[in-house]
Amino acid sequence: MRLEGSILTPSGWVAGALLVEGERIAAIRGTPLDGQETTAPILLPGFIDCHVHGGAGADAMQGETSVRAMARFHARHGTVALLPTTMTAPVAEVEAALAGIAAVRARPRPGEAAVLGAHLEGPFINPGKLGAQPPATLLPDPALAADWCRRFPIRVATLAPEMAGGLALVRELAKAGVKAQIGHSLASADEARAALAAGAAGFTHLFNAMSGTDHRTPGVAATALAQGAAAEVICDLHHVAPEMIRAAARAIPGLYAVTDATAAAGMADGQYRLGGQAIVKSCGCVRLAGDNTLAGSVVTMDETLRHLVGIGFTLRQASAMLSARPAAYLGLTRLGALREGAEASLVVLNEELALTDVLLAGKRLDRSA
């Protein structure tokens, strides 16, 4: 297969052709643009979503069939790999959700974004900073977490390190190769720094559901800006104002975008489920039923790209936040960049940055399905 256009490579833009053989990029041939304006078609690495609860009416807590449905939906919006994300719930429900995620990861099907593993969001969070999480929290339990890490493909876990046992949990997760992230937390700056020293790798939905940036009593968000190497941020422009996204991008070298999308993504306005919670989609966002609390999002990664460009990021900067940085954070070598030998999982955009084509491991996706 041969694709022509403006191609974003790790060293910059190239005007030319990208050749695909099997699942891989065989070659990229062309002329560096050297500051010249890109023209459509535009070829970018496929998007990687490290925090996503659902889409197309499906919720990751509902098992294998729902995980497959959300993986198909997000693939049609340019996401080539994702981490289905759990909700705080009783242990048996969390384990059932993790088993469903593991089943899709073990047996991928055509047309699905690759399931890289799970993002465990809760139950080891602060009950005083639930956000849209149900009140089914547990104190950090390193033994339970170690058991889950042995049984299920957990790649990222969100926790509140200030809770009793929190630092021990951070160390246990780091030992298991899991990215421990601070989130749904009321930690002080000192407590957040202690978590980083213990092995915490990042921050979950930066600025949301965490202690903040007060100039005299700084919390988790301030620590992320001051010392964070990586953090995820929701760029639906409801969760975080453009100025704060730009400030975070200046401060955190590994800032990357996530959707935090729910089952309501891609659906009409109305009521849906987010784990054990009822949520309502209206006016482009989703909130807890009967409450004004934001409850995830309805954004997709292709929309996120356009949002970032719209608030002042270059296309190359925006692409890095959706592809290269999450790939680097997760230690992926085959995804996140268009280069010879990489997996041919990529997106093609027109002049308006709308998707015209998606390739998953060298196969063109039927986006009408």
Q: What multimeric state do the chains show?
A: single chain
Helix-strand string? EEEEEEEHEHEEHEHEHEHEHEEEEHHEEE
The CATH topology label of the largest domain is TIM Barrel
Whole-Å distance between the termini?
Answer: 22 Å
Q: How many strands in all?
A: 21
Q: What's the CATH class of the largest domain, please? A: Alpha Beta
The share of residues in extended strands comes to: 25-35%
* Structural category: alpha/beta
Largest sheet: 7 strands, mixed
Mean pLDDT: 97
* Total number of helices: 9
Low-confidence segments, ≥5 residues, pLDDT <50?
none
Strand arrangement across the biggest beta sheet: 3-2-1-4-19-20-21
User: How many domain units?
Assistant: 2
CATH architecture of the largest domain: Alpha-Beta Barrel
Instruction: Estimate the helix proportion, in percent.
Output: 25-40%
Question: What gross morphology would you assign?
Answer: globular
